[in-house]
Design a protein that fits this description.
34% helix, 19 helices, 523 residues, alpha/beta, eight-stranded parallel beta sheet, 18 strands
């Protein structure tokens, strides 16, 4: 069976189930799952799949409380020549069962119009399945390059196919602010546009091609609802205190120096960040996050926290006064203080702060979640073992999809192990799961996005869902083939097979191509 991610148990049985114009869906209390089934199977087959109580030629969807041992995302699926039965303890599991059923059908099922000449058959099988990790995330950075609603919606559809359940949406950057905040309109009036983009790390001039875009609050609500219908949680990232040049261009008074500033056209780490000493900064953050919480029901709100140089804070009278008034050791402790203030504010509203591992400090808020990407490995293990700190794993060289295939070949993406070695069971339970980020410094087009993401996102699906002992790269490559046909039907321009696993002599030079595209991609 060519299913990705590979299920926990799969038993082949003799025979097939034939889907035809008379196939019915047994009346089920979970109307959302039935609607998902019809929307996925109906367009390509042309079958109505009416609701009807029947013993044969029927698809049954059941929520079964007795299956709690499978967890909220687990399910059972049984196919016999007479009927298809999907069972789960909760709606998310039933939705995942529908996605597995989808992959058991021919790839032509992905078509959005009737396809003639296809035998719509399912192999008889019994599957019991559940995920290895509760967090199986994909991060899209739209701060650098804005891709828009249709691209995001299709990504959510394909995430659902692969049972990915966290969409980490990086919405603010030095190069662009992408979320409408009604109390601060200049964030998008000024911060959402730049006059051009420097084509490389060392370029002196930008290309003169204006770039911009942002999501209105109504658009965000629609996208969040679309994701929720697919059991995907949208985790927004509002970067602070660094990576805020676009915000400072709109409101320079939030900086230590007063500016002026322009939305960044190049990429890097910029010295001007939000001033932690000013009361107006704290008010700004609270106002922005109040609107963010109204848009995103996610239990988690990401605040970035990485790459925040302290150069301006060291020379800023307001920041130095804040350090003295709060009895802080230094500027790093000031960032921890700011992070804790935001974390406590979020906790008071039933949310949890997430930040990159640079937010770690001796007194970090106990409910803050850390996303590990680089450096500080000993500090991370200490936080897991001593504080039982929840952690999302995004190890830089193993998960960053913006890296070229020479640096991060498909094989490496697939073989990533999110659990650090040497953790006891209690500490291992703190690892929420893997997330693969796609940063958009050099991601100007949908074609480039597709090339960087696919098929490595399929590897993520298996890293996050399938038990480590069941993973097999050779078998994964075999099961990729029908998935690629599905992707083609969605217009996805995945990386050519010859690029996936470059020979060793090419990978030797991978370190020199970090975040720089290795081949031209037609628009």
């Amino acid at each position: 069976m060519d299913i990705i991610p590979l299920p926990e148990t799969l038993t082949h049985l003799p025979g097939i189930f034939r889907l035809d114009a008379d196939t019915a869906v047994h009346p089920a209390p979970d109307e959302a799952a039935v609607a998902a089934l019809r929307s996925l199977l109906g367009p390509a087959t042309g079958f109505r799949l009416p609701s009807r109580a029947a013993k044969t030629n029927v698809i049954r969807l059941r929520t079964v409380p007795g299956l709690e041992s499978l967890g909220p995302e687990g399910y059972r699926l049984a196919v016999t020549p007479e009927a298809v039965t999907l069972e789960a303890p909760a709606p998310a599991g039933l939705f995942h069962a529908v996605q597995t059923l989808r992959q058991l059908l021919p790839p032509a099922i992905e078509s959005r119009a009737p396809v003639a000449g296809v035998e719509w058959t399912l192999p008889c099988v019994e599957i019991t399945d559940r995920p290895r990790f509760p967090w199986r995330g994909f991060m899209l950075d739209e701060g650098r390059h804005f891709h828009g609603r249709e691209t995001v919606l299709q990504l959510l559809d394909l995430m659902a196919l692969l049972k990915l359940n966290i969409f980490h949406w990086h919405l603010t950057e030095d190069q662009g602010w992408r979320v409408e905040i009604k109390k601060y309109p200049r964030l998008t009036e000024v911060g959402a546009r730049r006059p051009g983009t420097k084509p490389g790390m060392f370029a002196r001039e930008h290309d003169g091609v204006p770039r911009g875009g942002f999501y209105t609050q109504d658009e965000i609500r629609a996208i969040v609802a679309y994701a929720a219908a697919r059991h995907i949680t949208v985790v927004p990232e509002i970067d602070l205190p660094g990576h805020t040049t676009a915000a400072l261009a709109a409101y320079p008074e939030l900086s230590c120096t007063g500016g002026p500033f322009a939305v960044a056209t190049g990429f890097g780490i910029f010295p001007d960040i939000l001033c932690a000493g000013k009361a107006t900064t704290l008010t700004f953050l609270q106002d922005v996050l109040t609107e963010v919480l109204d848009l995103f029901p996610s239990p988690w709100i990401h605040i970035g926290g990485d790459e925040a140089p302290k150069t301006r804070w060291k020379a800023c009278p307001a920041c130095q006064e804040r350090i003295r008034a709060e009895g802080l050791k230094d500027e790093h402790a000031l960032q921890v203080w700011l992070t804790n203030r935001v974390a406590a504010w979020l906790a008071g509203r039933g949310r949890k702060l997430v930040g990159w591992n640079q937010i770690l400090g001796a007194d970090l808020h106990p409910e803050a979640v850390v996303q590990y990407w680089v450096g500080g490995h000993k500090d991370l293990l200490k936080a897991i073992r001593q504080d039982h700190r929840p952690v999302v794993m995004s190890t830089y060289l193993d998960t960053y999809l913006d890296h070229g295939y020479r640096l991060m070949p498909l094989r490496r993406a697939y073989r990533y192990e999110p659990l650090p070695a040497g953790l006891d069971p209690a500490a291992a339970a703190c690892i929420l799961g893997p997330e693969y980020p796609l940063w958009s410094e050099w991601l100007p087009s949908r074609a480039r996005l597709d090339y960087q993401a696919w098929p490595r996102l399929a590897a993520l699906a298996e890293v996050g869902w399938t038990q480590a002992g069941r993973k097999d790269y050779r078998d994964f490559r075999r099961r990729l083939e029908p998935l690629l046909e599905r992707l083609e039907r969605h217009g996805v321009r995945y990386a050519p097979r010859g690029d996936w696993d470059p020979p060793f002599w090419k990978r030797l030079f991978g370190v020199f191509t970090i975040a720089i595209p290795q081949r031209k991609i037609a628009p």
